[in-house]
Batch of 2 targets.
Target 1
Amino acid sequence: MSPQDRHNPKVERHQEETSQGLAWVYQVRCTCGEEFDEYYAKQLAEQDKHRHLGKVAAPPAERCREPKKHRMRPHERCALCAGQLSLF
Ligand SMILES: [Zn+2]
Ligand SMILES: [Zn+2]
């Protein structure tokens, strides 16, 4: 995985025809191209999202410690923060 790979999984929702009528279906899609199962419960889709983020997260030592300042997401590898380790 290259550091350029960004993961921004989002829960998307659409309506689907079922025998009971229209129902909302939730599905997670990530900017890395991965797609997940469809669920009728949003919670289950949220779980997929967290599982995916957990899987693709950078090693703890390389994660951004100041996501706001560095405009990163907390699970991402941050060159600024990871680089700081070598200064100590
Ligand atoms: Zn992803
Ligand atoms: Zn950082």
Note: The two ends are 27 Å apart (CA to CA).
Target 2
Amino acid sequence: MAATKAQFEKSYKYKQHDHLICADCSKVFEFCDPRIYEIQKLAGELLNFNITSHSLNFHGKCTKLATEGTCENHKP
Ligand SMILES: [Zn+2]
């Protein structure tokens, strides 16, 4: 049973996703990269810290305003 639970938690954490947030239209784009979980795991091991969750947000601008000249927060 313990192995099943661990496997579930592993795959659950694996699917944890992170965000790109657009400063123009405030849209949130989700992405998932397993390397981020590897970093979390390594940092926890190095610092003997039991990490239970994380949040990672990248802020910037999506291409909508640049390509279409408008977006939800920028009316022409
Ligand atoms: Zn945008």
Note: The domain at 12-58 is CATH 3.30.1490.190 (Dna Ligase; domain 1).
